[in-house]
Design a protein that fits this description.
Elements lengths: L15 H5 L9 H14 L9 E2 L2 E2 L8 H15 L3 H9 L7
Antiparallel strand pairs: 1-2
Helix pairs in contact: 2-3
Length: about 100
C-alpha cells in the first residue's frame, strides 16, 4: 500500500531497479544511451493483453509513448551525459526546451 491507501500494483512488471542501472559509458556514443533509454521504456509500456491493471482497471489498449514521457527521456538522457547539461541547454536554447 502507498500513502494514499492504494496498492502499489503499477510496479507489477516494470523493471524499476534496472532503469536506475542505466549509466553513460564513455566508450559508447551518446545516441546509444538515448536509444537504450527509449527501448527500456517502450519495453515497459502497458499492453492490452498483459493482465496488468492501472488503478484497478484493466488496460483496454496498448499504451503509447506520450510526449511528456519523451520529454522525461530527453531530460534523463541529458543528465546521464552530464549533470549540468540540462541547465546549460536551457541557458543556450531556452526558447526551445520548456521542460528542462
Amino acid at each position: 500500500m502507498n500513502r494514499y491507501g492504494r496498492p502499489l500494483d503499477f510496479f507489477t512488471d516494470f523493471k524499476l531497479p534496472e532503469v536506475s542501472d542505466i549509466k553513460f559509458d564513455s566508450h559508447e556514443k551518446p545516441e546509444d544511451l538515448y536509444h537504450q533509454l527509449v527501448t527500456f521504456l517502450e519495453d515497459n509500456l502497458l499492453k492490452q493483453c498483459g493482465g496488468i491493471s492501472h488503478h484497478g482497471d484493466l488496460v483496454n489498449e496498448h499504451e503509447e509513448l506520450a510526449p511528456s514521457l519523451e520529454n522525461v527521456i530527453v531530460l534523463t538522457w541529458l543528465k546521464l551525459l552530464h549533470p549540468k547539461l540540462p541547465k546549460l541547454i536551457r541557458q543556450w536554447y531556452g526558447n526551445y526546451f520548456f521542460l528542462i
